[in-house]
Amino acid sequence: MSPRALTGAVTSSCCRRRTPEVRMSVSRETPPPPPSAAGVFHDQLPLMTQYAAILANEGVERGMIGPREVPRLWDRHLVNSGVVVPRLPAGATVADVGSGAGLPGLVWAIARPDLQVTLIEPLLRRTTFLQEVVDELELINVEVLRARAEDVDRQFEVVTARAVAALEKLAKWCMPLVAPGGVLLALKGQSAADEVKDAKRTLGRLGATATLIRTYGDVEIPTTVVEVSK
User: Fold this and answer.
1) Is the alpha carbon torsion for 132, 134, 140, 141 positive or negative?
2) Which of 39, 83, 123, 180 has the fewest CB atoms within 10 Å of its CB?
3) Rg (CA), the chain
4) Is 75 helix (H, G, I), strand (E, B) or coil?
5) 146 contacts 157 by C-beta, under 8 angstroms
């Protein structure tokens, strides 16, 4: 890792110290998991429910998510992220660029303890929140890194981002982090096809060998993912 990346690192996953500033309590306003969640998260559903409670309470209070997102927290955010988990190789190293509140990186780390997930986020208030969540949930497979993606001198088998930027700009940040033979999984919406078209030349310059659009999840609104292989 470069000196710049090391400078921005937040307490790593090996330090599971409880942080007193955040009280991770379940509120009556926390929406219950829908039936689809059990089929996505299986044995990890109780831990995912704890994360949902954190997002619905401290996450709103600290500006990680908007209050209007709470009623649709499961379908729009947690299940939407979780349905992509079967695509991830066993034991893969994963980087979540612009992780924000931990979507999809924390969802993937909870659902798949075999993964090694690095949450890359430049804003201190967000990395502080993320580390507190990691400590509270005792996630030993997660590292929180305060840094810009372009300052991280490491590569990962899987790099992901959700609601960060258009694909052309996102690729400039993310593709250098993708190891040879790895993949960028960009969670997108209805604009995916147009974004792929606009980013075609940029992706080629950045070493992309193949780009395709896939959907995941046997749910009402499947998740659209742009997959860029390197």
Assistant:
1) negative
2) 180
3) 17
4) helix
5) no
Confidence (pTM):
0.86
pLDDT digits (tens, 9 = 90+) for 94-123: 999 999 999 999 999 999 999 999 999 999
pLDDT at 8: 45
Alpha-carbon span 157 to 51, nearest angstrom: 25
From 56, 48, 67, select the one nearest 30 (Cα to Cα).
56
The residues, any chain, with a CB within 8 Å of residue 205's CB and separated by 6 or more, are none
For tokens 């742009």, the residue is: 226
Q: What are the residues facing 225 on neighbouring strands?
A: 187, 214
Q: What is the pLDDT of residues 56-94, one digit of tens each?
A: 999 999 999 999 999 999 999 999 999 999 999 999 999
Question: Phi/psi at 168 (nearest 5 deg)?
Answer: -60, -45
Cβ proximity of 83 and 75 under 8 Å: no
**pLDDT exceeds cutoff 90 at 25:** no
Rounded to a whole number, what is the distance in angstroms from the first to the last CA of the chain?
21
Taking alpha carbons only, the member of 85, 98, 142 closest to residue 116 is 142
Answer yes or no: is pLDDT of 1 > 80. no
Q: Is 227 exposed, middle or buried (0-12, 13-18, 19+ CB in 10 A)?
A: middle
